[in-house]
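#structure-requests
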Amino acid sequence: MPFAIINNIRMHFEVGGKGDPVLLINGLSAPAANWALQAKALAPHFTVVTFDNRGVDETDLPGEPVYSTGQLADDAAALLKHLKIARAHVVGASMGGTIAMEALRQPRLVRSLTLACTWAESAGCFLHTLESWISLAHRVPIEERDRHVLYPWLFTPEYGLSVSDQDRGHRSAGRGIMAWNGTRLAKLGGVRVPTLVLVGKDDILTPPAFSRQVARAIRRARLVVMPGGHGFFLEHADQFNRTLLRFPEVGPLHVALGPANALGDGGRRLNVSRGT
């Protein structure tokens, strides 16, 4: 299991595959292992980098009460530098999407941007939900909290509740999310890399309206609405992965895979619209 000292913490990361680099950034308390289905699909075409954010799983848990989104973005950039990667396709899910947007402070690092189930400025109900999660982080046994508090927000009932969650650093990163909310939206008009915005149509945590706002703010961004809830990249991993690999503008993760039916989806059309 590889580790590196990144910004004075011991960070766990994984690298696999061969080709242009892709950096996968995960959401609140989620470990690198949550990207396993994406890493497997992308590795034949790309060098795939995953990692545990500070305070998560195998990465150190610093004592600060708040991990700012900028700090988490700096960690991701420093990891790329450690790996001698000058530019990468960056994919962020949920909080990972906010980190990816913040990483654009160093635009030369970002070759393309894929933002999944994320937001730039959220409604009050989202922030209140996040506050409740932070408050309950150490008051309720983790299995009960997951089943009764977290999973109903993350997954549709059809998917079930079998995905494990990580608790370390939950409160510190959650406070960072709340502080970051709304600070990046006005700057998204300056994004000049190809951008794909993805969201689950049944996402009740970061609903499609949040993604539409992000896509409208970014010049020539593409918006794709897919089946599933907030965790749609796990619920419908095959379709999510195909969408990444098909993005058609020499942008995020474009590879020549041939016609749609060659990928076994029966030629189904995705609900695709431009972010305008």
